[in-house]
Amino acid sequence: MGWMNRLSNLFRRDKVGEELEEELQFHLDARLRDNLNAGMNEAAARHDATRRFGNATLAKERAHEVNIVMSIETIGRDLRYALRSLRKSPGFTVVAILTLALGFGANIAVFTVVNGVLFRPLPFPDPGRLFLISYQSKEGGLGLFDRDYLEYQRHVQAFEQIATFNQDSATLTGAGEAARLPTADVTSSFFSVLEVNPAMGRAFLPAEEKHGSNRVVLLSDKIWRNRFGADASILGKAITLDGIAYSVIGVMPAGFAFAHEAELWLPLEVGGDPGNFTTRAVVGRLKPQASQQQALAELEALAKHLPPLPVANREDMFAEVLPMKDLVVGKIRQSLLIFMGAVGFVLLIACANVANLLLMRGTSRQREIAVRNALGASRGRVIRQLLTESTLLSLGGVAAGVLLALLGVPALLALAPAAGVPRIEEIHIDGWVLGFALLLGAFTGILFGLAPALQATGNRVRTFLALSGPTLTARRATLRSTLVVSEIALALVLLTGAGLMLKSFMRMRAVDPGFRTEKILTMTVDLPDASYPTVTAIQAFDSSILTKLSNLPGVVAAGAVNFMPLQPVLISGDFTLDGGRKLPRDYNVAKPDVSPDYFRVMGIRFLKGRGFTDQDNSSAPGVVIISQSVARTLWAGQDPIGQRITMEDEPKPKDWLTIIGIVDDVRQRLTGRPLPAIYQPYQQVTRPFFLSHMSFVVRTAEQPQSVATGMRGVLHDVDKYQPVSIAALTDLAGASTAETWFQARLISTFSILALFLAAIGIYGVLAYAVTERTREIGIRMALGAKKSDITRMLLKRTLALVLAGVALGSCGAMVLTRVLAKFLFEVKPNDPATFLSVAAILAATGIIAGMLPAQRATKVDPVAALRWE
User: Fold this and answer.
1) Does residue 139 share a domain with residue 45?
2) Closest-CA residue to 662 (of 689, 693, 638)
3) Does the pLDDT of residue 453 top 80, yes or no?
């Protein structure tokens, strides 16, 4: 009923005012009559009635505050007064808004990315019911073995449907320049699970999964438009993939690229034969009444009855049912959350700076606040006014921060490694981002404005009115110092994180990969089985390419390897030693197939024996070259040259391979240990699978890019239908550290910003302290204090603040930097050298920031200071 009465007053504002005036007058008249009846004269009776009733204006204001209209008017008055107050101090207002803009801009930019990648729903109907299904060991990733998938498909109850898929690639020819395109092999239920239908045509039929059925393909909207000119009659037409004709049965909607940014979709046959141990990702759509926990329980129950696997120990495997977004987001989730925490620190430092500015400003407004209190304004009323001002400042910072974020988001994405940020098309400033910014602005406005408001209104009116000049209370000085110490501590935590990431990156860059990267170009080719079905055909192609590359102007040497170092894919496995000797448990080696000049091109050192020659071909006895770690592990203290091994489980006499040389170890991953390797000459390989993917490497006399055109011409001359993929080896090596470099640069940027804000905070507090202590400084100098004494006195305070901040920040860094452990390479989260270096940098910055006001203090004129009020 109270709210109904207030709302009714919207239509009777004047009447409410009149009624309130009448009620107040009634109470005054009643008191006046009582006094007259008691024998007072009229003047004394009226004076006593007014004194006892109190401040009538204050009573009216309190009564009006229960009126919704008056509340709105009060807010309007607060806003108008706050704007006038801020306009009177343009320097203070501009500095505060710019300081907050730095903090808000960084937060809004990072939140825009986080919102697009982590928070925005997947572009599928009811995405909350889509889950990944996995039964693997920790090292096995996510997914199911094919045989487990088929078994689960027969018994699944919690899901409406499940589907499996994997990432692949195919060479498209006959539609412009040949190109290697990302593809997805999917079961026929894949699109039903996602509830996404082709924009044109139809999806796959179950019969089309079977081997030997009609070859069909679905196109992405991008390929349909770019390669086929948005041909409306594309359905039923044939396109060539890896030399095989496929019939187009549909075109997917614009923007659909699941999974792994696929541009083509092919039907997948899942084999349950005993020799098939393929693992693929599996996605399912939960039934409306089912839960994630029910689905997990069902999978765990089924797993207990699955047949054993020779390639994995079931006891080491565990079931998982995870939101499908985990597959899309991948490992970037933790990085983004760390960045959110880092920019949160930057905003806290900015808020602390503005809070200090408000504290300083509050000191100069003591008399104004005292007068308002004397006129009847309550402490709560004044606090509300001050919070209105701080919130306006905060919202001004938000507006400026949004403008910075509009520039910052593209810059942030430009810093990210190629394909390092998923869902990049979803990253933009929208209503959710603006809503987040406004809420953050309102919250921080109250957060950094509350303490100064409470401080400014905490003393009695009588004390304020008695002030004859600026006075610094110990309590106010302590609060300002606490804020500065907090800024230093937060900045130190960020700087420590940045230092650890930079040191990790430098360690990674300093790793010797076992080969040289400068002046080397790589050209990778994937030969289709349809065009190159035999080993002989592939070897002839490779030999022709190598011969032509070697004769290019500027090429020192040319080589080939089936799987380049520093790439995500390689072939590895075990082998058999002559004489029946067993390998160490779980011992695997990389198995590169190389050309004779490969080691010379890559600069891989020979330690013993000889290299491959052109005579090591299919008609010669089989030979291999082993890496140093293989020799140390299997032939410690012996000479492995002349020893024999085989890659076959049941070798024939011709399958035995003789070791002819030892080379240095090569790192397949910069962050991993050198991987033991056994090299075979590509001319002696007997399986097409091992040679269909080949990287050709050339060492040049000049800049590598100078021969790139010639390499393209060589490939076109040998097979014009093969797409060209050329890259400098330095770029490939850089790509392996790109993510770490991105993380280090981003955290370093935030840390430098935090350091800058902290330095401003130290300077501001000491500068204001000099202003407040001008009279004291003048007295000291008049009594004979030297300039060095004044400087030393002020720098002692600076040093005290810095040391307190460093101590507090170091404790925080010891705890918080542990979240970086998985991102560090050969660096511990509590690395002493990094902690000491960061502390020294922060201490030096603080002292420099404190020197400026200290130097200004030494220029105080004692006579003028003694006259200062």
Assistant:
1) no
2) 638
3) no
Query: Which of 357, 438, 359, 353 has the alpha carbon at shortest distance from 394?
Result: 438
Residue 696, φ and ψ in degrees, nearest 5: -100, 135
| pLDDT grade for 222, boundaries at 50, 70 and 90 | very high
Give me 644's structure tokens: 């024999």
- Written as six digits, the tokens of 532 are 């190159």
Distance CA 727, CA 522 (A): 5
Q: What whole-number distance in Å separates Cα of residue 71 and Cα of residue 326?
A: 48
CA distance 806 to 867: 39
| Whether residues 268 and 149 fall in one domain | yes
Based on the fold, state whether residues 376 and 299 are members of the same structural domain: no
Average pLDDT over residues 387-398: 88
- Using DSSP's 3-state secondary structure scheme, residue 582 falls into coil
Assign 286 a pLDDT band (cuts: 50, 70, 90): very high
Answer whether residue 96 is part of any domain. Answer: no
Tell me if 362 sits within 8 A of 455, measured CB to CB: yes
Q: How many domains does the chain have?
A: 4
Rounded CA-CA distance 560/682 in Å is: 8
Same domain membership, residue 258 and residue 161: yes
CA distances from 831 to 310, 551, 819, 835 (A): 43, 52, 14, 6
Query: Minimum mean pLDDT among 286-300, 307-321, 662-676: which range?
Result: 307-321
Backbone φ and ψ of 611, nearest 5°: -95, 180
Contact 191, 224 (CB under 8 A): no
Half-sphere exposure of 486 (CA within 13 A, CB side): 17
755 in a domain, yes or no?
yes
Contacts (Cβ under 8 Å, ≥6 apart) of 216: 204, 208, 246, 247, 248, 249, 266, 267
Which of 346, 498, 338, 342 is CA-nearest to residue 834?
A: 498
Ranking 199-208, 264-273, 435-444 by mean pLDDT, the lowest is 264-273
Q: Give the E-state strand segments of 125-178 in sequence order.
A: 130-136, 144-145, 159-173
Rounded Cα–Cα distance for residues 604 and 626 (Å):
12
Distance CA 567, CA 667 (A): 10
pLDDT above 60 for 754: yes
Range of the domain at 312: 127-323
Query: Which of 854, 830, 848, 857 lies closest to 758, judged by CA?
Result: 848
| Beta strand segments in 567-622, E | 572-573, 576-577, 589-590, 593-594, 606-609
480 and 452 in a common domain: yes
What spatial distance separates the first Cα and last Cα of the chain, rounded to whole Å? 56
- Range list of H helices, 473-575: 474-510, 535-550
Task: Say whether pLDDT at 329 is over 90.
Answer: no
State how far the alpha carbon of 218 is from the alpha carbons of 174, 179, 208, 243, 326, in Å. 17, 17, 12, 17, 25
pLDDT in tens, 725-739: 898 888 888 877 888
pTM above 0.70, yes or no: yes
Residue % of the chain over a pLDDT of 90: 31
Same domain, 182 and 293: yes
Regarding whether 672 and 594 lie in a shared domain, the answer is yes
Q: Which residues contact 235 (CB under 8 A, 6 or more apart)?
A: 200, 201, 248, 249, 250
User: Going by DSSP bridges, is the β-strand pair 144-145/279-286 parallel, antiparallel, or unpaired?
Assistant: antiparallel
Distances (CA, A) of 702 to 56, 520, 550, 554: 92, 10, 15, 7
CB 104 within 8 A of CB 347: yes
Return the residue matching tokens 């004494």.
789
